[in-house]
Amino acid sequence: MKQEIEVLQPGLFSCIQDLGRFGYQKYGVPQSGVMDRYAMRLCNLILGNPQEAAVMEITFQGPQLKFGAPALICICGADLSPQLNRNPLPMGEMIHVSAGEVLSFGNRQSGFRAYLGIKGGFKSEMLMGSRSWYEGLTEHLRLKKGMRLIFDSGEAGNRETHSHLKIDLDYLQSTEIEAYPGPEFEKLSRQEQKNLLQDSFSIHKSSNRMAIQMVETFENQLESIITGPVVPGTVQLTPSGKLIVLMKDCQTTGGYPRVLQLSEIGQQVLSQKMPGEKIRFRKLDY
Amino acid sequence: MQDFPEISPMGERAILIEFGQNYSSEGLRKLLFYKDLIENYSVKEKLEVINTYSSILISYMFTIEDVYGEISRLKGLISQANIPKNLNSQIFHLPVCYDVDFGLDLELISAEKNLSIDEIIELHYAPLYQVYFIGFLPGFLYLGGLDKKLQISRKDTPRKSVEKGAVGIGENQTGIYPKSSPGGWQIIGKCPVIFFDKNQDPPSPFSPGDMVRFFPVPKKQFFEIERQIKKGSYELKTEVYEAGN
Hints:
The complex is a heterodimer.
Chain A: E1 4-9, E2 13-17, H1 37-47, E3 55-59, E4 64-67, E5 71-79, E6 82-84, E7 87-88, E8 95-97, E9 102-105, E10 110-118, E11 148-150, E12 176-181, H2 190-198, E13 201-202, E14 211-213, E15 228-229, E16 234-237, E17 243-246, E18 253-254, E19 258-262, H3 264-271, E20 278-283
Parallel strand pairs in A: 12-20
Antiparallel strand pairs in A: 1-4, 1-11, 2-3, 3-10, 4-9, 5-8, 5-10, 6-7, 6-9, 12-19, 13-20, 14-17, 15-18, 16-17, 16-19
Chain B: E1 6-9, E2 14-18, H1 25-40, E3 47-51, E4 55-60, H2 67-80, E5 88-96, H3 106-113, H4 117-125, E6 129-134, E7 141-144, E8 159-162, E9 166-170, E10 173-176, E11 181-183, E12 186-190, E13 211-216, H5 219-231, E14 237-242
């Protein structure tokens, strides 16, 4: 039996991701990797996978997937009402799937991005040390109808699984985004610094894996900088007042002032926010 | 460039080393020396070191456990360094076709800058440019050395799609689009060379510190070179360059 999953319906936007690409930023290649590392880590821990095993990142509206062979799976992150042959599935548990069964999703209950882990991991093409999909680099960018995804349960061996892990789901509800001062934070006036941390902002609908933009503008007199390094979690402030939070598929360099830098948890929380939802930045100190 | 950089964490997985807002060829030599030094003293699988005009970024795959220990180690490395006078690099000779069919904004620049199209072309291929770093898009070279007379602001409304290979000018920078992408630069020509190939290791032949010289080619020769590149029979002309001499 071929260890394949057939995509019956692709959903809104799903893709294969791992921890990301390292060693190619010097050529201008983005890091990529999962938006919510915590959810990925849980999936792989529960399944007894190595921590870098590739998972499926599912945004808002899940796909319909038909399993060509038996598999062990686990779903973490956003609760998008997962179902197996139309029977509701629990989150954060190892689940046996038989050949021919169909995994689908229903209404969103919480969060924005769900993660589907599979014993042994998804075996998408390995390019520059990563299986993460990225437009223009890897063959695929997102799930398409009729696509066949390969997994390999045999490789996983007999690692210990953690089926009784305590899972923290509070972060899915949190609206506080932890952020350190960015390299240009001190160039803001005291009042601007205060406002940036007091105002609430809502997620713009154009947000994606590259950047999450805020709807409200933030007036400022900052000068642009000579192009410098940026990383996922960097918050840029444009002259017209747009706040742009760079995410995993972001460019490696940028010329807008970098006013904040999200913590890892801050990025994880923001990844689970829907367009329209309100957030506030909470300052951390190094 | 400042002599003593500021070293600070940038989130939980990166450390930023900044030498100020000014940059120069000499500064770049220093920056690249420090970059090599840091790379050689690190576990390569776990982190990556990149540079921009006047910054170095060290990014880690996982959260840095002892960020202040790491910063003081970096300070030690940088304060001990003896910067060599020379930087060995290559000069790449890149063909550019400045035909108005490719140079979509040549006429506009000519009117705005009060220069003939021939003057613009000559001013563009005369300098020896230096690669400061690669960023923006995979394989996009940030080049220093554009003649001040050619500085022109970006388009008010960016083009939805700029062709792969398009050579453009934006403010004090010139560059080549390594793939088709939306873009706001003023376009003056086209270069047939491949700047990023995911199937090659390394995917780009260029490194920070390398030099670039453009040479003008007529349209017919452009298409001939393009054909040769497709067949894999075109060889980029390079020569060794020693700075500081």
